[in-house]
Amino acid sequence: MEFGRTRFQAGMRVSREHLDHLQDVLHEAIRGLRETGGSGRIVFGLRVTAVEADGVKVEPGYAVDGSGRPISLTAETPVAVDWGDAATCHLAIRHALRSGGLVRGVPTLLFDDAAIDVRRDGPPYDDGALPFARLDRDDATVTVTQRGDWYLPPLQHRHSGTFVERDGRWRYDGDPLGLPPARFDSGWVDEADVVLKHGLASADLVVQLQARRDGVITVEGLGGAYWYELPDSDHLRLVGKERGLELRAVAWPLDQPADAPPVADPGPDLVVDPGAPFRLDGRRSRAFGGRRIVKFIWTRNS
C-alpha cells in the first residue's frame, strides 16, 4: 500500500526537506489519531484538591486541545489562586510551546508544554484553553467542581455519570443514559453459549451488549459474530461464534410502572474528615411516569 511518506534510497543525499517531510507525515498521523479519539477535552487526570483558601494542587493528566495538540501535565502541580473580589474562578489548561537548541538565533527544538491559568471569567475560551475545574469560595472554605462535559470518556465507559479511577487514571465515566441504574449486569462471560437468569421478570428490556477481545471492547460483529436472545421473561442467552470473545450484557426493565417511586442517587461515595464540608449531587436521580424531581431532602442516618 502506498501512502504519503519519505522514501529513502541507498546512496541518496538526505536533505533538510526529506527530514521535515518525514516528521510532518508522522505528526499528521498522530494528530489524526487524537482527533479521531476526540479533541477539545481533558482525557484523564487533572484532579484538583483544595489545600488552603488561596491554593490548590492539580494531579498529573493529559488533554488534547481543539487543534489536536497534546497537553500533558507530568507532575503534581501547586497552583496559587488570587481571588481578588471574586467568589468564583476557573482553572484552565492550555498548550504552551517551549523552544530550545538555538542555531544562529533560531530554535531547533520545540517542546509541547502545559500552562495552568486561574481565570475569573467562565468558559468557553477563545485561546484554546480547556477548563477542568471551578472553584467557589465561601469564607475560608473552597469547593472544587469538575464537570463531566469537560472530559472525554474512555471507550469502555459505563455511563455512571461519575469520575472513576481505573488503571491508575482518573477519568469521567460517561453521561447517564437517562435510565435508572442498570438492574442486571452479567459481567464478562467467556462461554460461547450461556443462558443467564436476569431475574427482572420482564421480556421488555433495554439491553446493552458488549464484546471484548484482547482487551479491546467493540460492537463490531453484533448480530453476526455474537448476539443475545430473550428465551423467556426471566433469562437472557448470550451467544458468541468466535473463539477468544468475551461478552457482557447490561439490562434495564423497560416497563417501569408510572407510579414507581423515584430512584434517589446522591452521587459518588465520599470520604471526608469529621467537620469538613462536602457536597451531595442528586442530579442523577430519576422519576417515572412523566414526572420530574423538583426538590431534594437529605436525611442524616447515624
- If helices are DSSP runs of H or I spanning 4 or more residues, what is the number of helices? 1
Q: Work out the radius of gyration.
A: 25 Å
Give the overall silhouette: flat
Helix content estimate: under 10%
- Structural class by sheet pairing and helices: mainly beta
Distance between the termini: 68 Å
* Integer tally of domains: 3
Query: How many DSSP E strands?
Result: 19
Series of H and E elements: HEEEEEEEEEEEEEEEEEEE
Strand order of the biggest β-sheet: 8-7-9-10
Strand portion? 35-45%
Largest sheet: 4 strands, antiparallel
Question: Your description of this structure?
Answer:
The chain is mainly beta and 302 residues long. It has three domains: 1-36; 41-172, no CATH class; 184-253. The chain is 7% helix and 38% strand. The protein has one helix and 19 strands. The protein has one helix spanning 16-37, and strands spanning 41-45, 48-52, 55-58, 61-64, 70-73, 77-80, 88-103, 106-119, 130-138, 141-145, 163-166, 169-172, 184-185, 193-197, 205-213, 216-218, 226-229, 235-240, 246-253. The strands form six sheets. A four-stranded antiparallel β-sheet has the order 8-7-9-10, with no helix packed on it. A hairpin with a 2-residue loop joins strand 7 and strand 8. The longest helix is centred in the first third of the chain and has 22 residues, at 16-37. The protein is flat. The mean pLDDT is 88.
Summarize the structure.
The chain is mostly beta strands and 302 residues long.
